[in-house]
């Protein structure tokens, strides 16, 4: 009587999750908005190729976070997750398939945007960075991917899209206020600090490679900032994963 | 030898602890035993613990106690049997922006099922014409039918339906009843949780009644219904013929009680025997409809506010392989 495979493969689950995520309105409308914002910045005063990369990274990180939150939080809140888990009781498997789908979609979306935005002056970027180009692209991709993972984990923790967005807004507000009260504090705590350091590092590297190093420039700064970003992502991702596996689902 | 029980739940319990540390039990002791190949009605008032029990069976919520599906401990070994189980759990939802077809396709794809299975279940649930409409635009009934279609995708041996008639119109309810019966006739086991006692009476073989987080009774439908059928009889003549009909039927062994302009006839024989008897006596039947058997009364007695399991009236419950059948708990 039963026709379904008793052990459907992870790849099938991943493909279904990828299709679901890519077709979500929040994903592709968000991608169009990201592209539009990058375009506006591209043709509105920012002429430097590095600036374009940073803009893509910034909007890409926002997009990654928002789409991950919409996917995970929306499904939990609406009850669609309960229906899905009725067919896939291995929650960890669903979590990893979904996370991987979010990561792949974010990476492809951001990479496409970067290529589109910088396509007209990519040779200039290559010339000015030399062997650092690969490193810069890595940073530009990794930051949105980490933001997406943190978004998925925050949504799993909060249980809804709005709460997860509220957490991000609250964190940014807290940073803003604390930076007014104690100047410089925002660069020392929270997951956004290493992102800021990554951007600074890229700028410094850019200046250095052009033969105009800023005072105190150290072009190994982005490496450690990246490690810190990964540690934050791992920490928040782990808490989100644990919550996902233990949550009662409606 | 295959285990005879499709579902076994023993002493399932669960408590919620609030933020301020107060513990509230939602399930106290639920026992549920569903025989293979039967339609099992799982009844209880709102908040009795039906949906929580079903969610626990499907691994969606954590509970204490022992649960088995086809002999496998769940939720630990649920992945081993999930391909044999199709379930809709209390107002199932799908992403609203995809069509019904797309939602089923995602499910089928993730389970490794071919797309033709989607057409099959859409046919069964009569959703073909609405397959490409956005789920968010579906009516309640269409959403419910899509959920049932999803539950049937894997051609499961056990189908768990939690309030499947929610939001369905009368045609939909009838369709659901026929579908449930058909599934049972194909040898599948159906566990159905519902408020519609009349529906359950027409399709269920066994019943479990829960109230206040406890199983208060379990047994075969016949035992609950008292084994006697009730009929509402109206005659195509003036009131005087009603008393003649009452006497005629009582002489043949039926119990007859006047109710308004009709007669309620209680007996073991089928309905056609009533019409035959009355026709032979020169009385013409205008209508003869089956009415609720004893299930409704038993249900209301068992689930009345303030009734505790130890104070339950002695309802004759008999039968079966279920260790809890034959007893009020």
From TrEMBL, chain A:
<protein>
    <recommendedName>
        <fullName>ABC-2 type transport system permease protein</fullName>
    </recommendedName>
</protein>
<feature type="transmembrane region" description="Helical">
    <location>
        <begin position="52"/>
        <end position="74"/>
    </location>
</feature>
<keyword id="KW-1133">Transmembrane helix</keyword>
<feature type="transmembrane region" description="Helical">
    <location>
        <begin position="28"/>
        <end position="46"/>
    </location>
</feature>
<keyword id="KW-0472">Membrane</keyword>
<feature type="transmembrane region" description="Helical">
    <location>
        <begin position="137"/>
        <end position="157"/>
    </location>
</feature>
<feature type="transmembrane region" description="Helical">
    <location>
        <begin position="223"/>
        <end position="244"/>
    </location>
</feature>
<feature type="transmembrane region" description="Helical">
    <location>
        <begin position="164"/>
        <end position="182"/>
    </location>
</feature>
<feature type="transmembrane region" description="Helical">
    <location>
        <begin position="95"/>
        <end position="117"/>
    </location>
</feature>
<keyword id="KW-0812">Transmembrane</keyword>
TrEMBL record, chain B:
<protein>
    <submittedName>
        <fullName>ABC-2 type transport system ATP-binding protein</fullName>
    </submittedName>
</protein>
<dbReference type="InterPro" id="IPR017871">
    <property type="entry name" value="ABC_transporter-like_CS"/>
</dbReference>
<dbReference type="Pfam" id="PF00005">
    <property type="entry name" value="ABC_tran"/>
</dbReference>
<dbReference type="GO" id="GO:0016887">
    <property type="term" value="F:ATP hydrolysis activity"/>
</dbReference>
<keyword id="KW-0813">Transport</keyword>
<feature type="domain" description="ABC transporter">
    <location>
        <begin position="7"/>
        <end position="237"/>
    </location>
</feature>
<dbReference type="InterPro" id="IPR003593">
    <property type="entry name" value="AAA+_ATPase"/>
</dbReference>
<dbReference type="GO" id="GO:0005524">
    <property type="term" value="F:ATP binding"/>
</dbReference>
<comment type="similarity">
    <text>Belongs to the ABC transporter superfamily.</text>
</comment>
<keyword id="KW-0067">ATP-binding</keyword>
<feature type="region of interest" description="Disordered">
    <location>
        <begin position="306"/>
        <end position="329"/>
    </location>
</feature>
<feature type="compositionally biased region" description="Polar residues">
    <location>
        <begin position="317"/>
        <end position="329"/>
    </location>
</feature>
<keyword id="KW-0547">Nucleotide-binding</keyword>
<dbReference type="InterPro" id="IPR003439">
    <property type="entry name" value="ABC_transporter-like_ATP-bd"/>
</dbReference>
<dbReference type="InterPro" id="IPR027417">
    <property type="entry name" value="P-loop_NTPase"/>
</dbReference>
């Amino acid at each position: 009587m039963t026709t379904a495979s008793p052990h459907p493969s992870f790849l099938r689950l991943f493909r279904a999750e990828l299709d679901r995520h890519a077709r979500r309105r929040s994903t592709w409308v968000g991608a169009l908005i990201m592209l539009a914002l990058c375009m506006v910045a591209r043709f509105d005063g920012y002429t430097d190729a590095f600036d374009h990369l940073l803009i893509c990274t910034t909007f890409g990180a926002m997009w990654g976070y928002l789409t991950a939150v919409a996917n995970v939080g929306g499904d939990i809140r609406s009850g669609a997750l309960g229906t899905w888990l009725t067919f896939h009781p291995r929650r960890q498997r669903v979590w990893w398939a979904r996370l991987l789908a979010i990561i792949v979609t974010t990476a492809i979306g951001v990479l496409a945007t970067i290529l589109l935005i910088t396509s007209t002056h990519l040779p200039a970027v290559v010339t000015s960075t030399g062997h650092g180009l690969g490193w810069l692209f890595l940073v530009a991709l990794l930051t949105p991917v980490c933001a997406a993972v943190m978004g998925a984990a925050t949504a799993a923790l909060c249980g809804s899209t709005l709460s997860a967005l509220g957490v991000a807004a609250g964190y940014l507000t807290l940073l803003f206020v604390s930076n007014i009260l104690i100047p410089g504090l925002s660069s020392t705590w929270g997951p956004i600090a290493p992102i800021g350091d990554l951007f600074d590092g890229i700028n410094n590297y850019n200046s250095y490679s052009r033969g105009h190093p800023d005072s105190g420039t150290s072009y190994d700064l982005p490496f450690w900032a990246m490690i810190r970003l990964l540690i934050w992502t791992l920490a928040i991702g782990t808490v989100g994963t644990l919550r996902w596996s233990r949550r009662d689902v409606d | 030898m295959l285990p005879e029980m499709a579902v076994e739940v023993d002493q399932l319990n669960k408590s919620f602890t609030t933020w301020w540390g107060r513990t509230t039990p939602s399930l106290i002791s639920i026992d549920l035993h569903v025989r293979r190949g039967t339609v099992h009605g799982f009844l209880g008032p709102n908040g009795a613990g039906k949906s929580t029990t079903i969610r626990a069976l499907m691994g969606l919520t954590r509970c204490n106690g022992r649960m088995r599906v086809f002999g496998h401990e769940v939720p630990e070994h649920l992945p081993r049997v999930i391909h044999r189980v199709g379930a809709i759990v209390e107002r199932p939802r799908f992403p609203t922006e995809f069509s019904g077809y797309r939602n089923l396709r995602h499910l089928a794809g993730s389970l490794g099922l071919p797309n033709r299975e989607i057409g099959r279940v859409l046919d069964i649930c009569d959703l073909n014409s609405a397959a490409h409409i956005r789920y968010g635009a579906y009516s309640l009934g269409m959403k419910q039918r899509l959920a049932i279609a999803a539950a049937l995708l894997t051609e499961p041996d056990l189908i768990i339906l939690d309030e499947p008639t929610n939001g369905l119109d009368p045609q939909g309810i009838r369709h659901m009843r026929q579908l449930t019966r058909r599934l049972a006739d194909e040898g599948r086991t159906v566990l159905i949780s519902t408020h519609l006692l009349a529906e359950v009476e027409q399709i269920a073989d066994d019943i479990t009644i829960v109230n206040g987080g406890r199983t208060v009774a379990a047994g075969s439908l016949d035992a609950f219904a008292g084994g006697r059928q009730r009929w509402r009889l109206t005659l195509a003549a003036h009131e005087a013929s009603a008393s003649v009909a009452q006497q005629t039927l009582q002489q043949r062994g039926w119990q007859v009680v006047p109710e308004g302009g009709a007669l309620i006839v209680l007996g073991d024989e089928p309905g056609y025997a009533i019409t035959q008897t009355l026709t032979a006596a020169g009385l013409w039947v205008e209508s003869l409809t089956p009415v609720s058997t004893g299930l409704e009364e038993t249900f209301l007695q068992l689930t009345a506010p303030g009734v505790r399991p130890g104070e339950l009236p002695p309802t004759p419950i008999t039968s079966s392989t279920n260790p809890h059948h034959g007893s009020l708990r």
